[in-house]
Amino acid sequence: AQLHYSVPEDREPGFSVGDLAKDLGVEVRSLAARNLRLVSEGGQQHFQVDLAAGVLLLDSRLDREALCGQSPTCSLHLQLVMENPLQLHRVEVDVLDVNDNAPQFPKPEVVLEITEVANPGTRLPLEVAEDPDMGSNSISTYELSPSKHFALSINVRGDGVKMPEIVLEKALDREKVPVHHLTLTALDGGNPVKSGTARVTIHVLDANDNPPVCDPPVSKVLLEENVPVGTLVTKLNVTDLDEGPNGDVEYSFKTSNNAPGKFTKLFSLDARTGEIRTKAPLDYEESSAYEIAVRARDKGSPAMEGHCHLRVELIDINDNSPEIVLTSVSSPVQEDAAPGTVIALIGVKDSDSGDNGQVRLQIAKELPFKLVSSFKEHFSLVTSGPLDREKASGYNITVRAVDSGSPQRATQKTFYLRIADVNDNAPNFSSPFDTAHIQENSLPGTSVFSVSASDPDEGNNAKLSYSILDNGMQDVPISTYFRIDQDNGTIYTVRALDYEQDKVFQVPVEVKDAGSPALSSTAVVHVFVMDENDNAPSIVYPSVPKGSAFHQAIPALAEPGYLVTKIVAVDADSGHNAWLSYQLQESAEALPFQVERRTGEIRLAQALRESEDSHRLVVEVRDNGMPSLSSSVVIVISPEENSMQDFSKSLDLPQSSPEDTNLTLYLIISLVSISLVSCVMFGLVAARC
């Protein structure tokens, strides 16, 4: 007989597949007697017979997919053998599919690629999921996770297999979403429905559709001047939404061929990283800011580029000292310049800025000058007090400029200002009174004295000339006696001087400078004529003609000591030259007379003899000069009997002559003058001390 049963694949062992006794039409109790046996055709025993109950039981759990695979039908064939009589029955057991397998994709993750410039409608095939179950338990449909850009399309192959495809519905932008992550779900038709999923990763392939972009496109950097070479200025922030070569950016300076940027000499640019560094010292005073243009270019085809603009502003540091410029200097300046007279125009500049460029000018406070601000960065140097060239002929003026930076920087400049002389000082003699001495009878042109005057002025104002003034103090103009060298002040005699005529001269000397107007002063030189022994003694008594003799009678009985007569002589010279001495010239015979050496008295030295006749005496009067001069007189003395002469009466001395009176007056004047001059000199010395 042919028996046919069915059993779901998910039943547990012991499950009753069918009632063999009933279906074979035999008694249950006979089954054991007939030795019922079950023989499997496949070699593997999946079933067993319960002889007591006469039923076919499941011996092990069945797995339709393992037994039959993808076959639409799955049947197990058995043979039943009974003896007494021997019978063979065929049993066919259909293994019914149960939805015990979920759909499964070959790979848990599917990676797809699509260019970002793909047109909508582009399809991306997907791998089919597998489900070991059959029939309605097999894959029924596919589902795709929601997406703005993609949708799912299912096509049915000729063999009935459903083929899922992803369809592009909206244009892509890799720069916005470079990767799309989707979930594909396969659903079977079982109850309950089972599903399997796969992750779908769609990479959007880049197209060079985006230029490099600077962020920000215009930027500013503050940088101190004089930073070390190689200092990082900035690193450009450039993004290119493309990738690969399309997003690989190279940097370069953007310059004009006609006017290359100066900044290229001062800054370097790393073409790969976009770092801008200094490559030369920066100087705020040369340029306070630099505009740098940078080109950012990708390596796509065609290449695209963007532009970055960087402004580098330098921060000034106090690295420059002030500079002093002497615009004009009025040198020399007159010493009588009024206060406020402009001496110099001074400019100052400092290349720094702000407080670093604010400059103050200073000069020494003790100088008679001050600084007056004319306008910004310009000053006038003016006099602040009287000038006196005689005290200071010039000034070394140091102008110091100090800025307001931190630390401060300073510089100074020194210039010499000469003070021009003004004739404001009269010449000044070393002494207002001087005394000179000169021998009488000196030759004309003899140097008497040199006066000396000084003038603290200079140039023509100090060029002196000397002259002698005729002040009328002498009876004869003084210029007839003396002259003066107008250049050196030496006084010379014009003619020989006679002490006996003029014993002292007052020579007024004027010194005058060559200034305009000229200034002068005077001094008096007292010239004392020194006596020379140029006059022989003059015998005034007895007065006898030259070549004649004076006769004097004496008593014959005169005793020794008797005053015979007295010789009176004078000498126009003075001093030693006028000291007179009297003596008798030697004679062949001894004379009984003697002459008093100092008084000139002739006295009888011894008594006269009666037989003696007259005596002839030669009396010599000699002065004390060098060489000594002398005069003599011849006296004839005759003795007379009973002659008694009153010598005092007979001695007829002449009266003083006017010349003698004048001589006495001159001597008095000389003494008074010398006394006055001495007093004045002592007074001047005391005043100076």
TrEMBL record:
It comes from Elachura formosa (spotted wren-babbler). One of its GO terms (cellular component) is plasma membrane. Keywords: Calcium, Cell adhesion, Cell membrane, Glycoprotein, Membrane, Repeat, Signal, Transmembrane, Transmembrane helix. It is found in: Cell membrane. It is a single-pass type I membrane protein. The chain crosses the membrane at residues 663-687. One of its GO terms (molecular function) is calcium ion binding. This is Protocadherin gamma-C3. It holds the Pfam family Cadherin. Its main location: membrane. The keyword Transmembrane applies. The keyword Transcription regulation does not apply. It comes from the Eukaryota. GO terms for biological process: homophilic cell adhesion via plasma membrane adhesion molecules. SMART domains: CA. Residues 6-105, 106-214, 215-324, 325-429, 430-539, 546-656 form the Cadherin domain. The gene is Pcdhgc5_2.
